[in-house]
Structure prediction request, 118 residues.
Amino acid sequence: MSRSVLVAVGGLIGSVARYWLAGAVQRFSNSAFLVGTFTVNLVCSFLVGLVMALSIERGLLNANLRLFLPILIEIVDSEEKVRAALPYLDTMLDTAGGGGLVTLESAEIIKYTQGQRS
Prediction:
């Protein structure tokens, strides 16, 4: 099976699982805060890190199966601050030895509100 198909299948499974889990947690919490999204991001980040560490240290997953476990780091800040972080990202990618992709994109802010401070 080609690597592109593996990545596509992994994306399909992952996105449906995230959608289902985030919705379930959000309905259970009955909160205005995006508890579902926060919980999914926290739990999935931990699980991906754990599986990757175990697969690398103990050889539990071959290279093709590790394609199912991409990691995305998103930084939202001024272009100047993001560019200042690029050398650190280069070091992390080089140290990990797994390769990676770094992009710089502009974002359109649709709405931003700051919560009340107590």
Observations:
- Residues 3-29 form the longest helix (27 residues).
- Residues 51 and 69 are 8 Å apart (CA to CA).
